[in-house]
Amino acid sequence: MYFIGVDLGGTNIASALVNEKGEIINSTVIPTEAQKGPEYVIGNMKREIHKLINNAAGSKIVGIGLGIPGLVDIDKGMSLFAGNLGWQNIPVLEQFQNEFDVPVCMDNDVRTAALGEKHFGAGVGIDNLICITLGTGIGSGIILDGKIYRGHSLSAGEIGHITIVKDGLYCNCGNRGCLEMYASAPGIVRRTQKYILEGHNTVMTSMIDGDLDKITTKTLSQAWEKGDELAQLVIDETAEFLGIGLATFAHLINPEVIIIGGGVSLMGDKLFNPLQKYFDEHSMRILRNKLPIIPAKLKSESGTVGAAALAMINLGIL
Amino acid sequence: MYFIGVDLGGTNIASALVNEKGEIINSTVIPTEAQKGPEYVIGNMKREIHKLINNAAGSKIVGIGLGIPGLVDIDKGMSLFAGNLGWQNIPVLEQFQNEFDVPVCMDNDVRTAALGEKHFGAGVGIDNLICITLGTGIGSGIILDGKIYRGHSLSAGEIGHITIVKDGLYCNCGNRGCLEMYASAPGIVRRTQKYILEGHNTVMTSMIDGDLDKITTKTLSQAWEKGDELAQLVIDETAEFLGIGLATFAHLINPEVIIIGGGVSLMGDKLFNPLQKYFDEHSMRILRNKLPIIPAKLKSESGTVGAAALAMINLGIL
């Protein structure tokens, strides 16, 4: 039995043919081109699925899962709101159900990524976990008793928008001092740029030819490896912001493990070591040194494999 | 059918005979005297239950529920740790099961209080809610899909120990800057005392005959009613600490309602009005003005009625 998982992102549409073990057999990536509107994007998603079906000649495809950014009404199959796509109240699911002969289901992309990690990644065998995505934004999927937990109005797990700095930076969510403003990729870059503008000496200045816009979290990572003190400071601060935020999350949800994925997590031990330290420092004694924070295993594949996992769950196979 | 609910606290043991509608028919309160040890306390609890049974002559008592402070292992019927009682690994449940002919069950007291509010108080008809207890400490019971959520190691809902002030006051939980250090009754009193010691002019000084140890949250409440500016400042600050903490809780759990009980909640609108304001200010726009923070309805009875509700659930009646 085979499944297709589609991960719709602001930049790319990633699709994959996945087997029952969560292994990718075949995959495609195309640009999203969200500015061309939902019809165009959904048309492209369908075409990618057809491509995978055609290339899988003979293999039995039994279900399709979609991971969609933003607020998703899984019962109505609607995208209620997706800021990075410019979508609002778009009926998504019916368009796929009319096109394909197999069952199609959808959920929020961060939640499907959490499912991917739970069933085929770093969370195998664990029934209570939080899976954080650290990228352009910061989101999370909560798995309780083995199942996705969505909350009363589908907003559970909004770790990116908890107040981490009182009277801090204004966020476009309406709150201020949000974790996302400090520890997402743009937040980290912004803090780095601010330090450089203030006059700190750093190897990064030459690495980016003096052009602050060229700084990425990869620049920081490389500078850290060269022993750069400013890079160490910024990553340490990032770990502290995250450590406080994740300790808060853990005190409320009390998961068995916290899994971290997304682009920023690729910093690896440079980030995870101080993060675990700050997390434990900001935890009650009875929780300290008991909750591991571990990197996601599926990396860039968590989206498509997670969407395929959703299809498996929908069919009662997982 | 009748039930008995026992609420074991650091100060008192409250017991009640409760009918199926959650109404108290008869009740008793005796001092806990925890310093005399667990055997003595458990003996007293049994005696109170026998008293209620004897006084209920003819009424059919079908179940007993116990609300116990601290960490409770509901499967083993053990009190794993209760700081205010000095208990550690005390087998509680078997002692009651050997004594009474009807089923006995137990859970953490904050969780049973949440059950009380869910079934017979401010949360009737609501399946996803958080019930906060603001008293000597700050705890919470989380109800998801109508059931108590306990977390992986029974520590879910530890809102009192999330970091609300970075590098803030040391807490005996091992963390620092915990919400409980600022917004529990002792935290509020401590902040008031500090302001008075700094020299602020306030009607409270005469209300307490200059003895700072006499200040309680009731003093503050009365001073507020007299238009005292320091009392207003302290209550406003309390609301801000709580507003940030509860907004964080809501962003992660996304409940339908937040219920607040415990001694501090008796301040009423003086606290709830600014609390709702700060909560909304620290929320994402899509959550703002949608989540009501309401006072507990059962007040001092939530413990016993909640323990009785636990007994009803245990018997499949609720």
From TrEMBL, chains A, B:
GO terms for molecular function: ATP binding; glucokinase activity. It is an enzyme of class 2 (transferase). Keywords: ATP-binding, Kinase, Nucleotide-binding, Transferase. Signal peptide: none annotated. It comes from the Bacteria. InterPro entries: ATPase_NBD (IPR043129), ROK (IPR000600), ROK_cs (IPR049874), ROK_glcA (IPR004654). GO terms for biological process: glycolytic process. Belongs to the ROK (NagC/XylR) family. This is Glucokinase. It comes from Tepidanaerobacter acetatoxydans (strain DSM 21804 / JCM 16047 / Re1). The lineage of its organism: Bacteria, Bacillati, Bacillota, Clostridia, Thermosediminibacterales.
